[in-house]
Automatic annotation (TrEMBL):
Residues 2-82 form the GST N-terminal domain. GO terms for cellular component: cytoplasm. PANTHER family: GLUTATHIONE S-TRANSFERASE U8, GLUTATHIONE S-TRANSFERASE, GST, SUPERFAMILY, GST DOMAIN CONTAINING. PROSITE patterns: GST_CTER, GST_NTER. This is Probable glutathione S-transferase. Its EC number is 2.5.1.18.
Length: 239
């Protein structure tokens, strides 16, 4: 029997992606909850010496790092479950395009929209809005980004449907609303109401408290930078 361990962190959207994929495939695994912001375990540092981040999937003693890489590994290793990526090479390329877009473009902009202040925040809000328009177009006419079933793009877009919504509510933003993005709104409802997804979301109150602490730290960093004459601008947004 395969031994599958997931080094993760309870509130991380990256780790949640892996849990969802393993559950969709029906793979049993052990979850090791890392305190990545205070003390990383020697095992995590051993398995991911390059990035020193979670998630890390350890399959029969062999580590796989980086959530997008792990998702493809899961899809190829446990072929019997529902497919996370399509078989067609062009369709696969499109999945990789959108997941890269989500991680490299959307995630940083949306994070900055929540954590920065002033002009920097205004720019991040505008950028997020422009990026979300692309996603609105892509999901239009479909139940999920993957078609009728949840696929890798849906799983990777998880942070938009839950983490960002909680974040923007806390900060008082109106970037992603059902009025501005009706198709994304429908997708979020479908996605979040799917049993496996719903059961794997971190508790809202716990996540809200974690975000609150981060936002306060970001605000303090901005105020300190401004007082020191550094201009602030919210650039000190912590991870
Ligand atoms: N590109 C990575 C990002 C993972 C990531 O940022 N993980 C965070 C937790 S949400 C982490 O481990 N942070 C610890 C650190 O930055 O030192 C992935 O897709 O797996």
């Amino acid at each position: 029997m395969a031994e599958v361990k997931l080094f993760g962190a309870w509130g991380s959207p990256y780790c949640c992606r892996i849990e969802v994929a393993l559950k969709l495939k029906g793979v049993e695994y052990e979850f090791i909850d890392e305190d990545v912001h205070n003390k990383k375990s020697p095992s995590l540092l051993k398995y991911n010496p390059v990035h020193k981040k979670v998630p890390v999937l350890v399959h029969n003693g062999k580590p796989i790092c980086e959530s997008l890489v792990i998702l493809e590994y899961i899809d190829e290793t446990w072929e019997e479950g529902p497919s996370l990526l399509p078989k067609d090479p062009y369709e696969r390329a499109m999945v990789r395009f959108w997941t890269k877009f989500l991680d490299e473009k959307c995630m940083p902009a949306m994070r900055k929209a929540c954590l920065s202040r002033g002009e920097e925040q205004e720019r991040a809000k505008e950028e997020s809005t422009e990026l979300l328009k692309f996603l609105e177009g892509t999901v239009s006419g479909k139940k999920f980004f993957g078609g009728d079933n949840i696929g890798m793009v849906d799983i990777v877009a998880n942070f938009i449907s839950y983490w960002f919504i909680i974040g923007q509510e806390l900060v008082g933003l109106q970037v992603l609303t059902k009025e501005k993005f009706p198709k994304l709104g429908e997708w979020m409802d479908e996605y979040l109401n799917t049993i496996i997804i719903k059961e794997n979301l971190p508790p809202k109150d716990k996540l809200t408290a974690m975000f609150q602490a981060r936002f306060e730290a970001a605000a303090t960093a901005t105020a300190t930078a401004a007082a020191a004459g550094g201009g602030g601008g919210g650039g000190g947004a912590p991870k």
